[in-house]
User: What shape does this take?
Amino acid sequence: MESNIFQPVLLWVQENPNMSGLVVFTISFLESLVGPGFFIPGVFFMSGIGALVGAGVLSMWPTLSYAVVGAVAGDYASFWIGMRYKAKIKQWWFFKKYPRVLIRGYAFFKKHGGKSVVLGRFVGPVRPIIPVIAGMMGMAPRNFLLANILSALLWAPFYSSPGYFIGASLNDFSLEIAARICAYVLLFILLIWICHFGYKKTASSAIHSLRHILRKEWEFFGARAGFASLQRALTDKRFTRRPGQVLQANCMLLALLGFGFTAVSLSYHTGIFYLNDVWYHFARSAHVLKADWFFTYVTKLGEIELLKYPLILVGLYLFFKRRFAVVAHGVLLVGSLYVAAKLFKVSFHYARPLGISTAVEGFSFPSGHTILVTGIFGFFALVIARDLIPRFRIFPILAWLCITVFVMMSRVYLGAHWALDVIGGFFLSLTLLFLINIHYRREVKERFPVQVCLVLFAVGLLFGYGEQIASHKLLRDYAGYQLVYPEKQASLNDWEQDRLSSIKFRKDAFGREHGEFNLQVVDDPQHLKASLNVNGWMLRPTFKLSYSAQWFSGHPAPEHVPAFPLIHNDRMPAINLIKRDGKTAYAIAFWYSGYTIEGKPLLLGRLSELKRLHPLPLVTVYQGKLIDPEQLNMISMFKKMGYTVQTETFSEIPERQITLIQAHRASTSPLREVEELLGQ
Assistant: This one.
């Protein structure tokens, strides 16, 4: 039943276009009407309508016409309400509880006049109230109707266009698949809207509570003689009565505790130490070419060889402008960050991760790149935020945190640091940053020349990147960050006698043992793949968007559904094949083991039967269940292909016996291999 859930819906929409148009009209009308318009997510519904149009479920022009007419009717109804009831509206329950809605709408209308009817339709906070304000203010009905129609003609295609492009991109798929994908896209948009709505409801009260706590803490310091010196130290020279410095002092103490906890976890292998292995293996398994280049560029933002150019330019400008206090604090910050990084690296002497082609010099903990990028960019962000009005102060802080997080991710992704290195570096840098910034705000009152310094900083960064590209250092670093997978030499006897370690269980993307292998083959992957192809095994679809759409099909054939990317030892399968036997489908995958026997790699494989699952509504995937290789006569098949075969039985738990096939092929010349395949 679940697989055909969209068929009757799609059939009803196609057979009743007028009824679907009525639904579109109703949504647009309520979204524009005062009252319901405050709660109905217009972006969500219009994106959904656009997606259905793009996917071919709804016709474009009739649907847009219904949306425009509904928007015009809803706004005019709100205008009539404002014109009819005027000041009485202020006594309505909703506006008595939320008077700022009317105040904000009145201020917007007063500032923009008649244009506010057009502009207000695209501004979320005032969208439903502007027509009411226009009616209360006595705007001429003819002028309002003209602006209303114009804004609706712009609004309907503008709000539905994101969904339209999503739906249009699904035209290569069947109507049912496209509708299923659209449903999940709309669900995702609705989730974002709910999170945004919840944030708006809770953020103001949370900020108010935080300010109240900081004010009480500030008054506590001022009321006790023993804390008078501490209060003076936390006084902002420009805003002497604001407790903003108390927030920074609290953050500094929390950062210091965070660094201590990270250092203890690393030293005693407790707490969050397990994150090192988990993120090391996850980062190695997630490597792709474009991400390698991206993170190679990003990680440069934490290198003093690149940062010296923007720092010198900004420092010289501030020096010639006689802003000596700013320069002194900047020099003190950079110097303390650099010294702290070197000092703690030597103190902990923790080794770096292995597995990249060129080993990074020096010790690992804490991450010097993270320390520099957190401190330097953070100082700029806090200095800039100080001069902004409160509602805009969050933006430089968010920009700083985004840059810092990306540099932290780059160090772990590229294999240059452990997870605890970047976490510890972040907390250590925050401690020094807040300490120096508290002193800066106490001593410096003048405004910071934001625009000029940002331009100089950007020019310095571009020059630094250009110099690294011209000298080929960026290319050398990119090559040095490439992953390597060491191969161990082993003898055929050691393998047959089960003396090799870590070859019976698959290790997932987090380095944990996750399932057994039931095939071990010593052979070249290309020859093994060709031999299996001859015996009816086909290439399984890779993990791509075009194939992934089959997950949303009602009854997808297993050979058309992409396999989930299973990892072993941080690598994807070298071979991934599928075979049909009547109604049953089987999958076989082989990974490199890290061992080489007689010049050929030892491949570890899983033979499984594919079972259909529904992890989410409307989604179908296939999961492999390990089976006995003899269920498909694998022993005779390998012997037929010219392999020497032996079997073994082992168990992870007593109740479950695993039959393991070990096969190897004697070394032959390339010409002989071709003859063998042709003979088969």
User: Anything to note?
Assistant: Confidence is low (pLDDT under 50) at residues 1-7, 669-675.
